[in-house]
Amino acid sequence: MHGRGVAPALTGFSLEVPAGSCVAILGPSGSGKSTVLRLTAGLDAPTAGSVHLDGADLAGVLPERRGMAMVFQRPLLFPHLSVRDNVAFADRVRGVPRRAARRRAEEYLGLVQLDGFGDRPARALSGGQEQRVALARALAAEPRVLLLDEPFSALDVRLREEMHELLADLRARLEPTILLVTHDHAEADALADSAAVLDGGRLLQAGPLRDLYARPASLAVSRLLGGRTEVAGTVVAGVHHSPLGALALPRAFPDGAAVLVLRHEAVQVTPPADPAADAVGTVVRVRRRGLRGLVTVEITADGGSATVDAELGPGQDVGTGRTVGLRLPAEDRWVVPVDDASDGPSAGGPRA
Questions:
Q1: 215-343, which class in CATH?
Q2: Beta partners for 311?
Q3: Where would I find the ABC transporter domain in this sequence (predicted)?
Q4: Distances from the Cα of 217 to the Cαs of 36, 50, 98, 161, 204, in angstroms?
Q5: CA proximity to 263, closest of 299, 303, 209
C-alpha cells in the first residue's frame, strides 16, 4: 500500500494466521506493523494483494461486516457511558435488546475480572481497568478475529504482566483467533504461538518465536529479537573460525564469510580453568538485572578480538576485569550471512 512517489508501507508480505492461534507482528516503529492490522480490519484498502478470511476474499467488505474487533493502545471508551454500557455497545448496535445486552456485558466483565464494575463511569477507571473494559467490549462483539494494536504498551510493567496473564486465560477459555502487533519481543513470547518480524515494510522471517530466537535468518532479525552477540568469521566445512577459535556448528552451512550469533541466555560463565570452556576472556562490563546479571566478555586471539554477552544465573557474580571461561553450547551456535556494509557487524557485535 502506497501513494504515487511514496515507498510502499508493505511489500511482498504474506502471512497465515491459523484459527484459534495468536500470531504476533514484531518490528520497530514505522516497519508496517499497524498497516497489517488496518488492512486486515478494512480500515485501509491495499493497492495490491488481498485479505482472506476462511478462504473468502474480503475486498469491498466493510469493516463492520468483517467479523473483527480491534483493541488499540488507547482504550477509546465512551466517557459518557457506564462500564456496562461500553461493553454492551456492540450488541446494542446489532439490535440486541438493552436488558439482554447488559446481561451479556456483565458476563464479559466477569471474564476480564471486573465483576461489580458495571455501574461505574468509564472516566473513573484506571489505565489497566480501561484496557480490560476495551478488551471485554471487543470480545462481546464475538469477533472471528481479534486485532490487538500494542494494547498494553502504555501500562506499567506490573499492569502489563497482569494483562498478559489475563489474555492467556481468555485464550484458554475462548480460543479466539488473535493478530497482535507489538514492538516488544518479550510480550510476543508471553502471548503468541508464532511471530512475523517486519522491518521497512518487508517480512524478514516468520515462525515459532523460539525458532526465530535460536535461528534468525539475518542480523536484522537477531537484533530485533534482542540478540547481542555477533562475531564475524568464516565457515569452512561446518566449522566457524573467528577470534573465538574453531567452533563446530550444529548443522551444515555454506562455506564463506558468516556471522556467529549466540543468545546471551545460552552462554555459560565458568572459571577460566574449566576444561569444558570453549573460550577464555576478560569481563569488560557488568549490568545487573535483578537477581540476574548480564556480562560482556572480551576474547583476544590470533591478532583479533570479539565480545560475547552472557547472562549470569541467580547468585552468580563476577567483577569487571576478571578472567572467565565461556561455554558456548554447540546446539545454540548459529550463523547468518554477512549483511550489506551498512548493517554489517563489528567483531564484537552490537552494544547497548
A1: mainly beta
A2: 294
A3: 1-225
A4: 21, 26, 53, 29, 8
A5: 209
Write out the three cell numbers for 161. 504482566
Domain boundary assignment for the chain: 22-209, 215-343
Angle ∠(23,24,30) on CA atoms, nearest 5:
140
pTM for the predicted model, two decimal places? 0.86
DSSP H helical ranges for the chain:
33-41, 83-87, 89-93, 98-111, 127-140, 157-174, 185-191, 209-214, 219-224
How wide is the angle at C-alpha 231 spanned by C-alphas 229 and 232, nearest 5°?
150
For helices 127-140 and 98-111, what crossing angle results, to 10°?
120
Angle CA(158)–CA(27)–CA(196) in degrees, nearest 5?
A: 100
Q: What is d(CA 205, CA 176) in angstroms, rounded to the nearest whole number?
A: 24
- Per-residue pLDDT of 146-179, as tens digits, reads 999 999 998 999 999 999 999 999 999 999 999 9
3-class state of residue 270 by DSSP:
strand
The side-by-side arrangement of strands in the sheet containing 292-301 is 268-270, 323-327, 279-289, 292-301, 304-312
> Rounded to whole angstroms, how far apart are CA atoms 270 and 310?
11
For residue range 101-149, what is the model confidence (pLDDT) as tens digits?
A: 999 999 999 999 999 999 999 999 999 999 999 999 999 999 999 999 9
Dist CA 54 CA 47 (whole Å)? 22
Burial of 196 (0-12, 13-18, 19+ CB in 10 A): buried
Decide if domain 22-209 falls under CATH 3.40.250.10.
Answer: no
